[in-house]
Amino acid sequence: MSSDAPDSPTRLRDRVAAYLYRLKRRQVAYRHVWVGRLIFWGGAVGVGLVAVLFAQMTELAVETLHGLDERFPGWAFLSAPLGGALIVWLTRRYSAGAEGSGIPQVMAEMAQHGQHKRLLRPLLSLRILVGKIVLGIAAIFAGFSAGREGPMVQVGASLMHLIGERLPRRLQVDRRHLLAAGGAAGIAAAFNTPLAGILFAIEELSRGVEERMSGLIITAIVIAGVVAQVWFGNYTYFGWLDISGVDTPHPVGLLLMAGLMCGLAGGAFARVMILSASGLPGRLGHWRKTYPVRFAAGCGVVIALIGVISGGITYGTGYGEAKHLLAQDAVLPWHYGIDKFAATLVTFASGVPGGIFAPSLSIGAGLGQNLHLLAGEHYLPAMTNVLCMAGFLAAVTQTPITAFVIVMEMVSGYGLVIDLMIVTLMASGISRTICPPLYRTLALRYFAKPEHPPAPEPAGPAPAQAAGAPPKE
């Protein structure tokens, strides 16, 4: 009988060997998939742990600063100028790309792929991650008005960028998806707002979501959120908002005033930030460009002056002041929102690492305090504060859905969903008439300009090409 017969031992042995070979390859593939999943899950756990550490260190820095300012009046006149100069020097020397919020850097890294854009320098790395955390905490301790939520987006994306370099190639995970998942997990863990993290990734980072990307984002947010809740417990960022005393469920007049005021203020705030990033006019801009470290020291002096005017309440994130305004357990000066507005702009112009999410919420709460004085006593102060917090954040970032969900989750204000939606949509629309989108405009400054911009097409027929000249593109 021929060896090629169907029932021959050789044929049977070949089939068994082929089956075992396919089984082994399948087992190797499954092992690679599970190794990749474990690495990704470990990265999400890392984002949650870093968010917890960042929050603890930030609160310690704020408490220590206020304690020193009370014990040694005028302490900020020493810490802010010297600290600002040192932080900017260290940032430019060792962590270039860690300055500012961190969200524009992540957006720039995501935008460069597939669009033939080239970054001036890498914006996600271990060096930038460490610098963002250490220098960000130092800036808050020095007295600058900055937050940790925006920086956590860059920190989370940097962690996922490092994780992506170690994922098995067989997984074929898009780098943009990893960065969006890391950034969304970072902001969700920082605010303890999982829904807002998902919406932030969709509305701001990616402007859309794919099926595979949505799974990565949700998984990263859930894991990072669980880590944060294990440490902090099941809490809301600003406590629980009681609106049981509100007679009118949707006060139209209050909503219109809140939307208009926050839209104008937030749009002007974002406009000044864009102007500051693109280059201040006159001698001030020349001084900043030529002597950035000295300029940061000068900004520190201004920060200290604003702090003296406000009684020291403009230093740091503004979280405590916003919580006092919502709980109505402390009296803040009527000009607190204006002072915080100015301090945050000066902080951004100085070039120190730090976000604007928490300061924007604090500014909104201060504006809400002023709006309550205008609107009348028949509205709850906490209600006007919450509406203006969401409205101002929406106007600055021009992400109304993310803004109202963040604030709603932070105060458990589900009874104000419709009101928050109206105010944020109105404020964001007004802001769009004043300035372009903040983060996307800031992201453009990290791209290198084309060396040879395309020449305009000639109106008439093209002239004959000279002999030996290079061909025209």
UniProtKB/TrEMBL annotation:
Q: Where is this region: Disordered?
A: 452-473
GO molecular function list:
chloride channel activity
Mind telling me which residue stretches traverse the membrane in this protein?
A: 34-54, 74-91, 124-144, 178-202, 214-232, 252-274, 295-316, 341-365, 386-408, 414-435
Compositional bias of type Low complexity: which residue ranges?
A: 462-473
Database matches in Gene3D superfamilies: Clc chloride channel
Keywords associated with the record: Chloride, Chloride channel, Ion channel, Ion transport, Membrane, Transmembrane, Transmembrane helix, Transport
Pfam families for the chain? Voltage_CLC
Q: How does it sit in the membrane?
A: Multi-pass membrane protein
The record's subcellular locations are:
Membrane
The main place the protein resides is: membrane
A Gene Ontology cellular-component term:
chloride channel complex
The record, for InterPro entries, names: Cl-channel_core, ClC, ClC-type_chloride_channel
Question: Does the keyword ATP-binding feature in the UniProt annotation?
Answer: no
Can you name this protein?
A: Chloride channel protein
